[in-house]
Amino acid sequence: MGLITGLLTLPLAPARGVAWIADRLEETAERETADPAVLRARLAALNRALDEGEIDQERFELEEERLLDVLEGRPPGPAPTHPAPPPPGSH
Asked: Which superkingdom does the taxonomy of this entry point to (predicted)?
């Protein structure tokens, strides 16, 4: 980038910075959600939520199928309408 171009595009620097940060956050989120250890922990938390009566069987099956799809590398199905239980240790 030349000096003139750098000076002319300087007002855009904050927008480029925000876009760069958003890209890094997206990459991190994708890595974390595809991590098999994280997915197994979410499955365990889901089983505990079912056992403790926090969710019903239908919600359990929907979320379990979605997590297993991601774990097995298939495109995930639609997300449930209710948030999934938090992973263990996040309380």
From this structure: Bacteria
